[in-house]
Amino acid sequence: MSNDTVQYLLRLGDNALILSHRLSEWCGKGPALEEDMALANTALDLLGQARLWLSYAGELEDAGRDEDALAYRRNDRQFCNLLLVERPNGSYADTMVRQFFFDAWHHLALQGLCRSADERIAGIAAKAIKEVEYHLRRSSDLVVRLGDGTAQSQKMMQRAVDELWTYTGEMFESDGVDEQAVVAGIGFDPVALREPWLSYVREVLSEATLRIPPADAFMQKGGKQGRHTEALSYLLGEMQYLQRAYPGAQW
Amino acid sequence: MLVRSDAVTTPVRQVWDWLAEVPDPEIPAVSVVDLGIVREVSWSGDPSQECLVAVTPTYSGCPATEVIARTIAETLKERGIPQVRVETRLAPAWTTDWLTPEAREKLRRYGIAPPVGQAAAAEHVVDLSRIRRQGGLPTPIVCPHCGSTHTECVSAFGSTPCKALYRCHACKEPFDYFKCH
C-alpha cells in the first residue's frame, strides 16, 4: 500500500484527534451544563473516529505503530491536521465558529468518503457521517442563535468569523496526496467541496446576521503538510505528556 | 439486517438466547440483542471450537463498546464456551432502526423515550430549514412518564452519546430521549 494512502488516513485521523482534544479542554468548564455535555460528546465522537482512521493508517503503514503510537509519539511536524482544528478554544464564540466551519467541511468530506473504493474507508465514513450530521446541525443552530443574539454575542461571533476565516482556505487545497486518493478512487477532491461549503456557510451566516468575509481573502495553509501554528505544539505538549514521560504506560 | 434466520442450528440459537440476557452497561433495561448491536453469531456447538460474536458499536467513541465485548465473552465462558472471539464490525453502521419493538417498549418503561422516525429514510443532507431558529431535532417526542407530547429538548446531548435530554411540560419531569440515528 502506498505511503500516500497512509498519509491520507493520517490527515483524517489527525483532524478528528486534534479537534477532539481541543473540545475536551472545555470539559468541566463549559458556559452551561448542556454545552459542556455537548462538547464532551462531540469530542468523544471525534476521538472514536480518530481511533478508526489512525488504526487503519497504522495497519497499512505496517511499521509496528498502532493508534496510540501514532497519537502520542509523533512530533508536531509529523501531524497533518488542518490548521483550523488546532486553533485555541478562545471564547465560546471562537469555539463554536471553529466547530461550524469544520463540521460543514467534515460533512461534505465524509459524503465523498462514503463513496470510497476502499471498503474500510467507506465503512468508517458511513459510521462517522451520522455523528457529524448531528454535530453540524448543532453548531449551525448555535451560530444562528449566538450570531442573531445580543449585541455582545453578535460582536463576538463576527470577530470569531473574521479571525478564523483565514484558516478555512486550506480545506479546499489539493496536493499530491489528495490527487493520488482521487486517482485511486479512495478519496474526494477537496477543491470540489469549496462551492457547496461556501453556499452552506453563506446561508447559515446570513441567517445569523453575520457578514461572510471575502472568499478570495488571504488564506493560511501548511497544516496538511506538517507546517503548523505554534498552538499545535502546546496542545501536543499536554496531550502527549504522559506517554512521553512514561512510554507505553497502561492502566 | 441481522444474520439470524429460523434455519440456524440449535447451538447458535442457544448463544443468541444467552446474549439476549447480556444487558447494555449504560442502559441495563435492554440487552445487547435488543439494541441490535450483535450482528452475527457463529459456532459449531463443539466447546473445543471457537465461538465468534460480531458486534457493532452504536457510536464511534462509545466507551461502553469494550465493556460489552468483555461481558459477552465472560457470559459465554460461564455458559461453557471457553473460546470466544468478539469481533468489532463497523459496516453496515448501526442504526436505531435495528432496535426491536420489544426494546422500544422496554426503553419507554425504563423512562427513556424511544427514537422517533426511521434513520434509514433520512438522507445525509442537513436541511437548513430545520436549523432555522429551532433545535433541529424531531418533534414532538412523547414523554415516557405521562404520554404528553408537550415536551421540549433541553440539551442535544444527554448522559450517553446516544441520548438527548428532554423535559415534559405536562408532568414537569425530565427524561432521556434515545436519538434517532
What's the layout of helices and strands?
The complex is a heterodimer of chains A (251) and B (181).
Chain A: H1 3-24, H2 33-61, H3 67-72, H4 83-86, H5 92-114, H6 119-147, H7 151-164, H8 176-183, H9 194-207, H10 230-239, H11 241-245
Chain B: H1 10-19, E1 38-42, E2 51-55, H2 64-78, E3 84-88, H3 101-110, E4 112-113, H4 128-131, E5 151-155, E6 163-168, E7 174-178
Parallel strand pairs in B: 2-3, 4-7
Antiparallel strand pairs in B: 1-2, 5-6, 6-7
Strand content of chain B: 15-25%
Report how far apart the termini of chain B are. Answer: 16 Å
Low-confidence stretches of chain B: none
Total domain modules of chain B: 2
Structural class computed from helices and strand pairing of chain A: mainly alpha
> Approximately how much beta-strand content do the residues of chain A carry?
under 5%
Task: Say which CATH homologous superfamily of chain A is assigned.
Answer: Ferritin, core subunit, four-helix bundle
* Count of helix runs of chain A: 11
Strand order of the largest sheet of chain B: 4-7-6-5
Largest sheet, strands/sense/barrel of chain A: none
Main beta-sheet annotation of chain B = 4 strands, mixed
- At CATH level 2, the architecture of chain A is Up-down Bundle
Unreliable stretches of chain A (pLDDT < 50, length at least 5) are none
CATH topology of chain A: Ferritin
Order of helices and strands of chain A: HHHHHHHHHHH
Rg of chain A, alpha carbons = 18 Å
- Quaternary state reads heterodimer
Approximate shape of chain B: elongated
Mean pLDDT metric of chain B: 87
Mean pLDDT across every amino acid position of chain A: 96
